[in-house]
Each structure stands twice: as structure tokens, then as C-alpha cells.
Amino acid sequence: MPAEKDKKLYIIGIDSAPLWIIRNYLKKADLEGFSEIIKQGVLTDLESTMPPMTGPSWPSIYTGFRPGEHGVPEFLKMEPDYTRSVVYYDPGIKPPFWESIAQKGFRSLVITPAMLVRTPANKNIDMITGFPLPPKFSSNSIKEIADAHDFKGEPEIEAQMKNSEISKEEASSIYKEGIRKRAEVSKDLIDANDYNLSFICFTETDRMQHFSLNKGNWAECVIPLYEEISKFLKWTERRAKKEGAAVIVVSDHGAQPIKKMFLMNGWLMKAGYSKFKKEVEEGFNKASSNLALKYDLREQILRTIHRSGSRKAVYDKLPRFGKRMARAILANTLSGASSGNYNRIHDFDYEMSKTKAFANIANCPVTTIYINDGRFTHGSVKAAEKPALKKRIMRDLMSIKDQKGKPLITNVWDADEYYEGTKLFIAPDIMAQAKDGYLLESFGFLKDGNLFMEPEMPKSGDHLRNGIFGAVSYNNKIDCGKIHKKKLYVYNVQPTVMHYFGLAPKNDKRYGPIF
What is the CATH number of the domain that holds 265? Predict the structure, then answer.
């Protein structure tokens, strides 16, 4: 395929879009844009990263590499002192496809790519940065168009939903308006400029699904967002047909309703792999008004330290000595406190000298477990002990049963095989996946010892390992039947884009172009 400078490609990114929602509502809702892709092209599953989360998945779409290569394991990464630091995608580690084609003279429009928080230097790229930080603009002219449509990025209303300050229905309307504004900005820019690549990413769907998928009226809140995206998709398809271009629809992962949460750290405690500090255990066992007040105060402080929603934590901006000081104050003055049955677990709650493994960061149907070895400041597991310990934990995970006595865990993986010795972050040692409808929770503990609980409101829905990949071409014929037979991964998207523009992809060579 020659590298023709007039070739055009449109990519619509939808965060957390599962195939089952599109198929089930294709005739019930106004999803004409998706219907066109199904009739004229192909719409199928696309397997995500491990764990299947926004943080690592979008950079894998951009680069064609696994998280161990592009440097984004999740939204957070583990530090040697057990703290968690916010991490974003750094194009300097592995470049995204728009930068790779820009170097060859192709011009790109990139609107709100998730996990990218700084604008590029290349003049061939017009950009508005995306979730999870407020948008930045690659030029004043781009900002002026955004301002004309009052577009300020994804609406930051997650905290208001958590606090029940706004209803799900109100949130849906706000998110729908955010999608519409982003679409109008994109249309203006595409109409005014001769872009070879236009990549527009919508992330509102993920937030709305988290708060609603296990509710009876979830469709009333979620489907209007897909309908709004479908309108823009239809506009894009009409334009692509006139230009002889191609359109791709891609998601980083899917979504599902959550019935129950399983507390992975509670299980690790019961199994003897983790240990609380003595004063924390006493706080759980001797609940008093004083301890309850102490715990509530601690949680209020921690919530103040962290900004609302899933935005960057103020704590993360502190220098390392500042983080240590803040943690020491909380650990020394507020440890051993407990209020109510459900309690948040923090790094300073563990007796790390007696803790062999702990779950952390991942809070979705796939959990990540870290073995407390020499990578950490208080590692208790020697290198020689680690292989046998890992096998034992993996075996024990597969024995976990749900509340009806059925197997809960469907897959367990040795994470070393996935992260392949990365030096970019401390990688987890084990990953485990729960069956559909269950979430493996990594941040809490039930004082009564129960391991199952009802999902919190922001976890009414959560992720699936498969999102969507769709394509329709109005120039070169795509063999849809052939694509349906392929096993597709998020890592296949970057080489597909590169191949489309006649360029050699620089990605993980295990993953080639889809067409």
C-alpha cells in the first residue's frame, strides 16, 4: 500500500464500549452510525491489556506495545516504599501512531486521547489532550475553536455522582452534552483543515457505565451517550465516503454489570499471606467511639489529600520527602482506627515484615498481586523463596469459591510472562480474573471477615477484557470475513494505522496489521 499523501483515515475511540451493548440496542436505539459499519464493514471483539483498564489499554492502542514497554501499568504504579504514584502515557518512551506518521509528512488531528496530558511539538499534529486531566491545546487557534463551543474536556462530575449531588439521569445529560461539544469542535477542525488522520476519543461512556450498569434503568442513562457518538460516527462515514477514506471504531476494553465485589486483600489476610499491624487489628476488634472518630478523621484527611474523582492526587505532587512525612504523620497518629464494617486499607496498615503478598492498584475483574520481595523497602520474601510462593498463591487463587460454592476465579497468570522483565515500573507478580459479574476489589477489608459485598455505587459496572473494533473502508476493500476469523488485540491497532499509510510499523512484532 503506497504512502499517498492524500490518503485519509478516521478513528473514533470509545472508552469501555462492549459489543453486547451495540448489538442489543442496534434496533432499539438510534445507532445508525454503528449499523453502517456492521452492514458495510465489520464490527467485532478487541481484546484489551491485562488488567483491562483505561490506563494501560489506550497507550497500547497508540503504540502497539504491551504495558511493560510503554510504561503505563494502570492509572497508578507501585513505589518501593509501597506508595502509589499517578502515571500518564509518555510518548517519549514509545511514540503514538500519529507522531510516527507525522514524521513522514502526514497531518493529524487528535482530540482528547485518554492518558495523554501534554501536547506534541510536531507541527503536523493538532491536539486537545484528554482524560484524566483538564485539556491542553496545541495552539491558540485550536483553543479558540474549543472555546467557541464551550468545550472544556470531559465533564468533571464523578465526585458529584459519588456524593449523590446529581442523579444518574442528570449526569447522563451532562455527559451527552460533553460528547456533542467535542463532536462539534472536531467537525469544525476537520472542515477547516486537510488532515490525513483524525482521531477523536470519547471517554464519558466509561464513567456513566461505572455508575449504572447493574441498575434497572441503566440503558436510559447509557444509551443516549452511544446515540450521540453514533451521530458523529454517521457524519464521519458520510465524509469518508466522499473522500474515499476509511473509518475505524475502537475501544480500550468492554463493560459489564457487577453483582458482587470480592475483597482480595481480605482473602490474602485469611490465607496468611498478608498481616495487619497489631494496633490495626485491635482497632478492628475493639471498635469504640474514640477509635471510630479516629478512623473517620483519617479517611477525611486522606480524601482531602486526594482530589475528587479519578483526577491526579495532590499528594502525588509532593516531593518524595513530603510524601514520607505525610504518610508518617497519618501512620503514627491515626493507625489502628476502624469505623463500621468496611474499612479502607492503606500501605501503613500492613505489618510489612510479616506480609508476603498484597493486592493493590487494580480494582476491576482482574486483580494484580505483588509479592513483597527485595523490590520493596521492607521486603519479607527472599529471592529463593519467591517461585514456590508464587505457585502456591496461584494454586490457592483457583480454589476460591463464590457464595454458591462455584469457582470464582476463571484464570490465573504468572505476570512475569506478560510484563517480561520491564524496568519502567514495579510489575505485579500474579494476575487473576474473576468470572463475569464479579469485581476483585483491592482497597478494602470487612471487619466481620466476610469476603463478598455489594458493589459501591461507582462500581455498579466495571470492565470486560473485550471491547470493540470496527472498520469500514470506502477505498480499499476490507475482507470482513477474514477479520472476523482473526484474534484481535489492542496492540494490532497501531500497525494497522501504519500499514494503512504505507509505513512500516515499529511495534511489538507479535502483533501485525488487521487489514
Answer: 3.30.1360
Cell of 417: 510472562
Residues 331 and 417 in one domain: no
Residue 372's identity, in one-letter code, is N
Asked, for residue 142, whether it belongs to a domain, the answer is yes
Q: Do residues 282 and 336 lie in contact, with contact meaning Cβ atoms separated by under 8 Å?
A: yes
Please, what is the average pLDDT of the chain? 90
**Helix, strand or coil, per DSSP, at residue 293:** helix
Domain, as residue range, for 31: 9-66+94-256+468-500
d(CA 450, CA 440): 14
Q: What share of the chain is helix, strand, coil (3-state, %, to 5)?
A: 40, 20, 45
**479-489 per-position pLDDT tens digit:** 888 898 899 99
Say whether the peptide bond before residue 132 is cis (omega within 30 degrees of 0).
yes
CB atoms within 10 A of CB 238: 12
pLDDT digits (tens, 9 = 90+) for 353-408: 999 999 988 999 999 999 999 999 999 999 999 999 999 999 999 999 999 999 99
Distance of CA 71 to the CA centre of its chain: 14
> For the whole prediction, is pTM greater than 0.70?
yes
Structural domains counted in the chain: 3
Residues 397, 432 contacting (CB under 8 angstroms): yes
Evaluate whether 114 touches 202 at the Cβ level (below 8 Å).
no
Position 71 in a domain = no
395 three-state secondary structure: helix
Strands 84-86 and 76-78: antiparallel
